[in-house]
Each structure stands twice: as structure tokens, then as C-alpha cells.
Design brief:
With 330 residues, the protein is mainly α. The chain contains 13 helices and four strands. A hairpin with a 3-residue loop joins strand 3 and strand 4. The longest helix is centred in the last third of the chain and has 42 residues. The chain is globular, with a radius of gyration of 24 Å.
Length: 330
């Protein structure tokens, strides 16, 4: 395939009939951000394991179901999350996506072919979806889902649409999508229990208000003593859970920057930068949007701000032979 950079406002499709495209033998190279993401999901996985084990013990006591059966089924269910029909259900009912209609597919498919051909990736391994949204966005999910919003499909020039798709392809080829999917899937039991406790909180508060001051005091002292004993026995390791949301967000921001770099290495750095510039301009025009979010909000964000993304794209936007300072070498 010809490696000539694409024109700024359109793409020439060089991978049509009769054009040879070479696919890489290893299409996915899981990077460290994917493994870090999985590691940070470990506490949620352990909580879910405890929930499943408790349910398995209850089934064993009530119905005589062997404890190992529901436990093994849950452990193996992660593979089901990447089954194509299951991914279709996820796309439709969780992510609220739809299959491209013929007009949308006519616009989307050739751009996707160009992006995957440049990357040396078999694009037919992935499934294209569309989100009915007025936001300018795209997403990569599970093992094979690539989606763009209706606005991105309608408003973005071809080269910029390709840059967005190249970014999402970077999430897939780097392992960000499947690791995030596994973390989300195995956290479901713990998340359901947490939601149940949250719904029970008003009732527990009413019960506490109706109890005597002595009983509430004894309960608080007992809870505090148990918490102190657990922290002392574990050398304070549970306190690390307080940092978990911040660490998870930091890994998410790093994954976004690596996906940007993937798109830029494929030759889409300029159109991606122009798209980020437009988003930055749009946000600045919104009343109150010029105010910078607080430190906590920035640390908990899974996406870097547009200025940060543009800063990290700068090395890919300079002409060959130009050092970081911008002066031609030699």
C-alpha cells in the first residue's frame, strides 16, 4: 500500500480492489496500560468473588448445588463477554448503539478500510456501530466494537473521521478495550451489591435514628475497633483503596494519549489535532466552560483535557528532521 500521507481534507482509498494490503502477524500488542488497568480492577474482582462465593454457599445450603459449579461458571463467564452475539447485546442494550444503516455504512466502511489497511490490521475482525448522539465522539469496546456518533459521521471531514477511527483502533490493538471489558464484567456482582446497599441506606438511617444513643455509640465504637484491627493486621493496605479511583483515572488518561499516538503514527496526527482544536474552541464558547475544573475533578477524569492531548501530539506534527524545539536540524 502506498504510504503517501493523506490530503488534509480527504483521503484517497488505495486499498480497493486489486491493491495488495499486508496484514501484520500480531495485530494486537497489549501495552502496559492494559495490564495496569487489569491490576487496578483486582480489588473489585475480589469483592465480586466474595459475593459469588456467598451466593454459592447459599445455593449449596438451600438447593444442594455444589459450591464449585456457580463459582466456575462465573469465572469462565469472562469468555462469554467476547462472544460476538454477547457483544451485540452489549452494544444494543448497554451502550445503546445501532448497526449502521446503508447510507451510514457507505460513508463509514471505506474510511475504516483505509485506517485498518494503514495499520496492517484485518478490519473485518471488528464490527462498526453508530450512536444516536449529537456529541462528537467515538468509542471502542469489548473485543470487536468500534462506534462513532451520528454527529461525527455526518459532520467530520473524511480525514478527521479516519483520525477518530484510528484512535479507537489504537485502543483495540493495545488491549485497552478488552482489559476494560474484563474489569467491568467481573465487577458486576460487587457493583450490584453496592447498589443494593445504597438503596438500603435511607432505611438504615431511619433505623439508626430510632435506636437509642447508647446502642448507636456502642455500634460506632465496635465498628471503629474492627476497622482499626483490620488495618493493623494488614499493615494499612486497605487505605490504598482510597487511591484506587485516582490511579484508575491516571491509567485511563495514559491509554487515551497512547491511542492518540497510534493515530498519529498512522499519518492522522494533523486531522486529529484539528479535531481537538475545534472541540477546544466549542468548549471555550460555552458560558462558564473556560473555568478550569478543580484538582480533584482533573485527577478523577479518565480523559486528558484537549490541551494536554494537543501538547502530546506536537512531536508527530513536526516535519521530519525537525527537533523538539522546532528548528530544522543540520
Amino acid at each position: 500500500m502506498d504510504d503517501t500521507p493523506a490530503p488534509p481534507d480527504d483521503l484517497e482509498y488505495r486499498n480497493g480492489p486489486g491493491t495488495r494490503v499486508t496484514y501484520r502477524a500480531r495485530q494486537r500488542r497489549t501495552d502496559h496500560t492494559a495490564w495496569l488497568g487489569l491490576a487496578l480492577h483486582l480489588p473489585a474482582f475480589l469483592l465480586s468473588s466474595a459475593v459469588v462465593m456467598t451466593a454459592a454457599l447459599a445455593l449449596d445450603a438451600w438447593l444442594g448445588v455444589p459450591v464449585w459449579l456457580p463459582t466456575m461458571l462465573w469465572a469462565a463467564s469472562g469468555m462469554f463477554a467476547f462472544h460476538r452475539p454477547a457483544e451485540g447485546l452489549l452494544a444494543r442494550h448497554v451502550l445503546h448503539l445501532h448497526r449502521p444503516i446503508p447510507a451510514e455504512l457507505t460513508r463509514l466502511a471505506p474510511v475504516w478500510r483505509e485506517v485498518t489497511a494503514r495499520a496492517g490490521v484485518d478490519g473485518s475482525r471488528y464490527e462498526l456501530w453508530v450512536e444516536d448522539s449529537d456529541d462528537l465522539n467515538a468509542l471502542a469496546a469489548a473485543g470487536h466494537i468500534v462506534a462513532v456518533t451520528r454527529r461525527a459521521l455526518q459532520d467530520l471531514p473524511t480525514s478527521r473521521l479516519a483520525a477518530v477511527l484510528a484512535h479507537e483502533l489504537g485502543h483495540h490493538t493495545s488491549g485497552h478495550s478488552w482489559s476494560g471489558m474484563l474489569g467491568w464484567w467481573y465487577a458486576i456482582p460487587g457493583r450490584l451489591v453496592w447498589r443494593g446497599l445504597t438503596r438500603m441506606r435511607p432505611r438504615l438511617i431511619r433505623t439508626a435514628r430510632g435506636a437509642s444513643i447508647t446502642a448507636v455509640g456502642v455500634l460506632m465504637v465496635l465498628t471503629g475497633y474492627l476497622a482499626f484491627t483490620a488495618l493493623k493486621a494488614s499493615y494499612g493496605l486497605p487505605l490504598l483503596l482510597l487511591a484506587l479511583p485516582y490511579l484508575t483515572a491516571a491509567v485511563g488518561r495514559r491509554a487515551e494519549l497512547r491511542a492518540d499516538a497510534h493515530a498519529a503514527r498512522l499519518g492522522f496526527g494533523q486531522p486529529l489535532a484539528r479535531t481537538l482544536h475545534e472541540r477546544l474552541t466549542e468548549q471555550s464558547a460555552v458560558p462558564g466552560a473556560a473555568e478550569r475544573p478543580g484538582l480533584a475533578a482533573r485527577l478523577l477524569s479518565h480523559h486528558p483535557d484537549h490541551r494536554t492531548r494537543l501538547h502530546h501530539l506536537q512531536p508527530y506534527l513536526q516535519p521530519p528532521g525537525t527537533p523538539q524545539g522546532g528548528h530544522p536540524s543540520g
